[in-house]
Amino acid sequence: MQTLSDAFGRAATDLRVSLTDRCNLRCSYCMPAEGLEWLPDDSVLTDDELVRLISIATGMLGVNEVRFTGGEPLVRRGLVDIVRRTAALDPRPEISVTTNALGLARNAKALAEAGLDRVNVSLDTIRAETFAEITRRDRMQDVVAGLAAAHEAGLGPVKINAVLLRGVNDDQAPELLRWAIEHDYHLRFIEQMPLDAQHGWRRDTMITADEILAALEAEFALTPAQEPRGSAPAELFTVDGGPATVGVIASVTRPFCGDCDRVRLTADGQVRNCLFAREESDLRTALRAGASDLELAQRWVSAVAGKLPGHGINDPSFLQPTRPMSAIGG
Asked: What is the DSSP string of 95-128?
């Protein structure tokens, strides 16, 4: 067994697998209203190719968590079978999905039966009009139904990821937290990151972690959680004495790169050793040329070995990745 280690003593044990770059929402902080030019079908890894690479990661490289992302992973045909095959691997990884929850109401039970452990759902507001403004789609009730179906199917803890946008929903943090607690969902606020397709991110318009916490503390008593954070991206706080918690993922203002344990595989078979990497390592070409599992594993090890110490967002020379979040996968 090798590990996906870098020169700074970190080992990647959490694999984020993008299943597609396609999405059925058009969130303003992610992509333009008209969408993007999608990856050609023949460049996207097949189900068999995906499962083979995941089996190498879990069986040979020490990965113990697999999260399926997109784009929107629920639009990937064969998702349930991919989950089932991943759950059958030995050793079996923890399996989760990050989704916008459109269609989750139809699929939650089947995904749970296939072996999915939990879901993370992107939801920035519980006001239908604000949801439509942000996503450019009037589908909030479908998301709410998907969350309920995931909870009923036992895909817990059901987590919600929320981004606050200045002048759009930055006044809604307390009501979103109150709603999440009422429904037994675990809410995490995420600082908006420079990963939009339009390259329109600006530091001076981003809602910071300090602003998020100030908005919440106007209505709740927050106390830093006692449990160690480890490599988790969210700083956790107990709400009004607990047991409910809320998290803040301050990727920009309080980076946690020193504890990062993640590696990413794009839908077209490229390894990204950092969410903000400007370079990728190609596994697809070698895989399709007949490379052995050991050869693919060695390529993966080399890809992670060159990981930089941090994402560099706060460096004046920082350049946003060429690919947007929808094509990288969270």
From this structure: EEEEE--TTHHHHHHHHHHHT--EEEEE---S-H
In this structure, what are the phi and psi dihedrals at residue 287, rounded to the nearest 5 degrees? -60, -45
197 pLDDT band, cuts 50/70/90, is low
Q: Rounded to an integer, what distance in angstroms lies between the CA atom of residue 318 and that of residue 193?
A: 13
- State the amino acid at position 286 in one-letter form: A
> What tens digit of pLDDT does each residue of 222-278 get?
999 988 777 788 999 999 999 999 999 998 898 888 899 999 999 999 999 988 888
CA dist., res. 185 & res. 202, Å (int) = 30
Which pLDDT score, from 0 to 100, does residue 34 have? Answer: 81
Condensed to tens digits (0 to 9), the pLDDT of residues 39-98 reads 889 999 999 999 999 999 999 999 999 999 999 999 999 999 999 999 999 999 999 999
Residues 6+ apart with CB under 8 A from 204: none
Amino acid letter for position 221: A
Structural tokens at position 131: 């949801």
pTM of the predicted protein model: 0.94
Angstrom distance (rounded) from CA 269 to CA 288:
10
The string of DSSP codes covering 263-328 is: EEE-TTSEEESSTT-S--EE-HHHHHTT--HHHHHHHHHHHHHT--SS--TTSTT----SS-HHHH
Q: Comparing C-alpha atoms, which of 319, 163, 156 is closest to residue 249?
A: 163
Q: Which of 65, 119, 114 is nearest to 87 (CA)?
A: 114
Q: What is the DSSP string of 9-67?
A: S-EE-EEEEE--S--S---TTTS-TT--PPPPGGGSPPHHHHHHHHHHHHHHS---EEE
Could you tell me the domains of the chain?
Answer: 4-328 (3.20.20.70)
